[in-house]
Amino acid sequence: MGLNDTDVKTRILLSAKRLFAKQGYEGTSVRQICEEANANIALVSYHFGGKEKVFEAIFEQFYPGSEEAFNQYEDELKNPVEGLTLIVREIVAFTINDKELSDIIQQELTLQSPRMETVQASLSPVWFKVKELLERGKEEGVFHFDSLTVAFLTVMGVTLSHKRFHSVNVWLKNHDGFIPDSYPDQAARFVLQGLGVKLNS
């Protein structure tokens, strides 16, 4: 594949990601994607095989939570506290740094769309690892909780709650209107304290 082919494929994926996040999958046409990408409309079929395959390619290209991605953190993930800290930080950082893909995920899960299988296939390695770390941490006596379901939902809630920031800011009266850079670390500490881990101040 030539350099120009790679460039146009990337432009198509980035344009599709922007448009899917802004107006939804169903509300976005192939023509709009190609206009945004400054690409010939025939190239979507040529490079991807249609809009649905573009959607799948976005996750393959930009979602960081694949099984292979865990290999570089093998040592940290052996320890339930270090592993859960890492994953919470990474989830929060991802949802802040790639708001477009995070918004797409949220939309698709909320709608229970026909693309759920693609979304869940990407998310599953991360959330199965969270479940595994919670179970292992409880077995080792470092996490303290009564219900795995409640613990899991709490971890998920803390890591994703900032997605609602602009909706709830009317009650917070946060006139700065931003989430602090330290939020990933604060979220991880909050989760661990909720699980009964004694942390150094």
UniProtKB/TrEMBL annotation:
Residue ranges of domain HTH tetR-type in the record: 6-66
Pfam families: TetR_N
DNA-binding region in chain numbering: 29-48
Gene Ontology molecular function: any one: DNA binding
Keywords: DNA-binding
Keyword flag DNA damage: no
InterPro entries per the UniProt record, alphabetical: DNA-bd_HTH_TetR-type_CS, Homeodomain-like_sf, HTH-type_TetR-like_transc_reg, HTH_TetR, Tet_transcr_reg_TetR-rel_C_sf
Protein name: DNA-binding transcriptional regulator, AcrR family
Protein's organism: Fontibacillus panacisegetis
